[in-house]
Design a protein that fits this description.
The protein has 321 residues and is an alpha/beta fold. The chain has 2 domains: 231 residues, Spore Coat Polysaccharide Biosynthesis Protein SpsA, Chain A; 66 residues. It is 49% helix and 14% strand. The chain is built from 11 helices and 8 strands. Helix 3 links the parallel strand 2 and strand 3. Helix 6 runs parallel beside helix 9. The longest helix has 31 residues. The chain is elongated and about 90 Å long. The model has no long low-confidence stretch (mean pLDDT 83).
Length: 321
Amino acid sequence: MTDSEKNPYISVIVPAYDEAASLPILVEELSAAMTGHQYRYEVIIVNDGSTDSTRGYLDELAGKDHKIKVIHLRKNSGQTAAMMAGIDHANGTIIIPIDADLQNDPADIPRLLEKIDEGYDVCSGWRRKRKDNPLVRTFPSKIANFFIQLITGVRLHDYGCTLKAYRREIIKEIRLYGEMHRFIPIYAKWTGAKVTELPVNHRLRKHGKSKYGLKRTIKVILDLMVANFIQKYFQRPIYVFGSFGLLSFLLASSTFCAMLYYKYFGNKSFIETPLPLLTVLFVLIGIIAIFMGFLAQITMMTYYESQNRRSYFIAYTRNLD
């Protein structure tokens, strides 16, 4: 075993939006957790367009401690984009995202790393005893978790917990958009990674205001549908649109045959039934679906051949190479 395997370099990613009151406490707790176990580490805090005093505090902090690396985004881009910015600039062999609101406990990080040492590629935190509002936060989260398990087949109790540990080679291959950061274990599982979960401590929010709720649960479910579609059909979208088009042609053939039957055997003229209209409608739908499949296939090919584009824009950084 090499020295780096015995004492890996760890990147802790902290997306932060208007968390000026929580960040000093979090930084202190992270330092205690990491130095207490003598880990080699960096903390990358991504300021996601905060409107409070977060920017000033982070610039001052970065000037004092070179283990703290700061990325300021030009505008609020969302937690997924902020997390992706941190991952893109991380140097660690193990990458650990954590919320900035103090509800995740940095003291759980060593336990996650123990699971990685056991041979897992991903260890996901499980907030078994949540300290959130049951109606606004916990219930919508359970709905989202149910649909995620149902659609993906990946069995985890808590997809929404930010506190997770990833091997670098797993997470660096994944590009994230929308609210898809919670789906990283799913993407990893689909690529053959070994995924496990671990109960972690969950604490009450003491500062700031929660950015979660039922509206976000709806977004998560919609993003899940996109993720499932991408996983199955991204490289061959014609399979989806083409299948729908062929089904429409089949329905058109059925209504056409029924139309002829009623005409010659049922003594019904074409204008006495809606069948001719349905036949034309299904034919048009089939043609449109096939052409949409062609366009999607061309778009996919263009995507693979184009330059890699990011979903965030950096204003400036601190302590990054």
